[in-house]
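Structure ticket #2291
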Amino acid sequence: MEIQREMEEALRAYFEAPFPEGGLFVLGGSTSEVLGERVGSRPSLEVAEALLEVVLPFLRARGVHLAVQGCEHLNRALVVERKTAQAYGLEEVTVFPHPKAGGALATLAFLRMEDPVMVESLKAQAHGGMDIGGVLIGMHLRPVAVPVRLPVRRIGQAVLLAARTRPKLVGGARAVYTREEMLRKLAEFS
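Resolution: structure written out below.
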């Protein structure tokens, strides 16, 4: 299936750069947008299944935690494994996604994960993620998000955006931000 090839290519490109083992990756996606329709207008369990057949084993093999964002009808609550909720101190909420409230992707993620729970928020702890179709995952990312340019710009008909985060740069005029700069300053001092 073409969308599976696109998803795998996007994930491979994204994970060429280091990602923390045990890090948190958020995936938001509109299966309607993948099909070329307006978000929420044509949820597809088949599209969701095709995407998750690629995403779940790919991330598991890398030791990366996955959070799948639901749609606005669940206030963008997320599906995570119970161990992810525990590792990140996330509060479980009671709601079950379905294609018209939560979306097809969140619904299938809930059915395919080993021990899924729903959480209301990631508390802005995600190290990065992908947004398929403009579903707005930014609220779940750590404060300094950096866009990732991928060779794959679309999954099906949906626009694909990706981001990763980095620690904040702090300090003033004398601060340095790389190890090399620090060593150069140290050599100048000696």
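Closing remark: The first strand starts at residue 24 and ends at 29.
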